[in-house]
Amino acid sequence: MNFHGIEKEFSISARVTQLNEITLLSGEFIVSLTDFLVERPSLLTRKLMTKSIWNLIYISNRLKLMKTSDTNSRTVGSDSRQ
Predict the structure, then answer these.
(1) What pLDDT does 48 receive?
(2) 40 inside domain
(3) Of 3, 22, 29, 42, whose CB has the highest number of CB atoms within 10 Å?
């Protein structure tokens, strides 16, 4: 993956299903913004997401990437000013 000029390789565990002539490959991977030197976005001085979860779906020569959610790695009850 190349993002913001930084290239990283990912290993993705995936499930493969074969139905007649159709091959379905699906998996999920997490992208950390800090891996690509991207500053976390903030809203009213509160830092937001630190990671994005993506789904990978490949169906017979067609690849689709979908961002499923953003996560914040802070623990519950931590100081929101961090």
Answers:
(1) 58
(2) yes
(3) 29
Q: How many Å is the Cα radius of gyration of the chain?
A: 16
52 occurs within a structural domain? yes
Query: Is 82 contained in some domain?
Result: no
Report how far apart, in Å, the C-alpha atoms of 76 and of each of 42, 73, 79, 80 are. Answer: 18, 9, 9, 10
Domain range enclosing 52: 2-71
Q: Is the pTM of this model over 0.70?
A: no
- Output the CA angle 50-54-57, nearest 5 degrees: 175
Per-residue pLDDT reduced to its tens digit, 33-43:
777 777 766 66
What's the domain count of the chain? 1
Tokens linked to 73 = 């790695």
Q: Between residues 18 and 72, which one has the greater pLDDT?
A: 18
Cα distance between residue 80 and residue 82, in whole Å: 6
